[in-house]
Write a structure and sequence with these properties.
alpha/beta, twelve-stranded mixed β-sheet, 37% helix, globular
Length: 393
């Protein structure tokens, strides 16, 4: 076992392995006098299965100084997009990184494998618009091989994508076959004309068709991301809730967040409490769901509806204490906080010849420097950060 592998092995795992091994031996010995060999074999298989589950470990490299473990990696594949949403893309556009300064497919896979070895269980591919990459299906297929294990005891569980849905429909079958599990589709209005105003492009019908097709194809989850803004689409919140009556989707209402170039103003932001007040006025029975520990969305459901809805409350009620996400930009910078303006270039470190062991140390250092929480919405509005399109959602 090399030095790097030893660092990744959690002492608790070895302890559990010893306990299970002893228990296996005792079970076999006791059963030998009273039970059949078939029963003994079944019990041993059960214990081995438990041990296999315990083989998963989260490396200390991915645990910050506030005991938050990071098992979710979001990778931006491109800075380009086929829409021009007002809250994401500055009106004047953004300077694009030269192609040779973006991560190559091999570099994306190398970093992904390293993160999975250290304990990342979920990878989400973002952009820009990730599906405009011609090799997107190939990238998903390569990441899918990480679900089979990588020699470090860890396996990737889930591959997701966040997309605007414009070209999703014609690639969906290939993506399902390649191993894509979850789809998040950005849609801020149910009105075609308003969609064109928000995105500065046409395509609403294609997006709606893609959403329905994704549901029909039984992906693990299909979510709609809706950024809610005063004077633009706050009057459609209840219409989105009604959409979940017959469509098995999870609509997530996102509080408008400040990023460079999107002209954020407090008066444009619609808070979670305001949206909930609107919904409970229209729907007499609103059911709170049990959220998972690292969920970013506060989930709700209308009884009898097949879908659900929720709120991502980054501005009014931040969830920094349970954050388990790190981000990799298309040009190879590691961001440990969406709103943080400190970044580490893994691209430059790889291209300078750093080994996986050295990269892991660099990643660990960045994670350990992660702050307890973001600066708050008023400070964030005045803080320098990338435009959303250059971060990846």
């Amino acid at each position: 076992m090399n030095v790097f592998t030893r660092k990744l092995v959690n002492k608790n795992i070895l302890s559990h392995a010893s306990v299970y091994h002893h228990h296996c031996q005792k079970t076999i010995h006791d059963d030998s006098t009273v039970q059949s060999s078939k029963l003994k074999t079944n019990k041993l298989k059960t214990l081995k299965s438990k041990l296999a589950q315990d083989d998963y470990h989260l490396s200390d490299f991915l645990v910050d100084n506030y005991s938050r473990g990071h098992d979710y990696l979001r990778i931006s594949l491109t800075e380009r997009c086929n829409l021009r949403c007002t809250y994401c893309m500055p009106e004047e556009g953004v300077p694009l990184t030269a192609k040779d300064r973006l991560l190559s497919n091999d570099e994306i896979f190398r970093i992904s494998k390293l993160f999975v070895q250290q304990g990342v269980r979920k990878i989400r591919l973002t952009g820009g618009e990730p599906l405009i990459r011609r090799d997107f299906v190939d990238i998903v297929a390569s990441l899918n091989t990480l679900k089979d294990g990588n020699g470090g005891g860890n396996k990737l569980d889930t591959i997701g994508v966040t997309t605007n849905g414009i070209v999703l429909g014609r690639k969906m079958a290939d993506l399902k076959k390649a191993g894509l599990d979850c789809i998040n589709i950005s849609l801020d209005t149910l009105e075609p004309m308003k969609y064109e105003f928000i995105t500065r492009r046409r395509g609403w019908e294609r997006v709606m068709s893609a959403i329905k097709k994704a549901v029909d194809m039984n992906f693990q989850s299909v979510k709609i991301n809706c950024v809610v803004m005063n004077g633009l689409n706050e009057d459609e919140v209840c219409d989105f809730v009604k959409l979940t009556q017959d469509l098995n989707v999870d609509v997530r209402f996102i509080e408008y967040m400040p990023f460079d170039g999107n002209r954020w103003q407090e008066k444009k932001m619609v808070s979670y409490s305001t949206m909930m007040q609107n919904i409970t006025t229209h729907f007499t029975d609103v059911q709170k769901l049990n959220d998972h520990p690292n969920d970013t969305s506060k989930g709700y459901r209308i009884p009898g509806y097949v879908g659900q809805f929720g709120f991502i409350t980054s501005m009014s009620e931040h969830f920094c204490s349970t954050c388990n996400r790190v981000r990799l930009t298309a040009d190879g910078n590691l961001k440990v906080c969406l709103f943080g303006n400190t970044e580490v270039s893994l691209r430059d470190e790889m291209r300078s010849g750093k080994s996986d062991e050295e990269l892991a140390e660099i990643i660990g250092g960045a994670v350990k420097r992660k702050k307890k929480q973001h600066a708050g919405m008023f400070n964030l509005a005045n803080q320098k950060n990338r435009p959303m399109i250059l971060i990846g959602g």
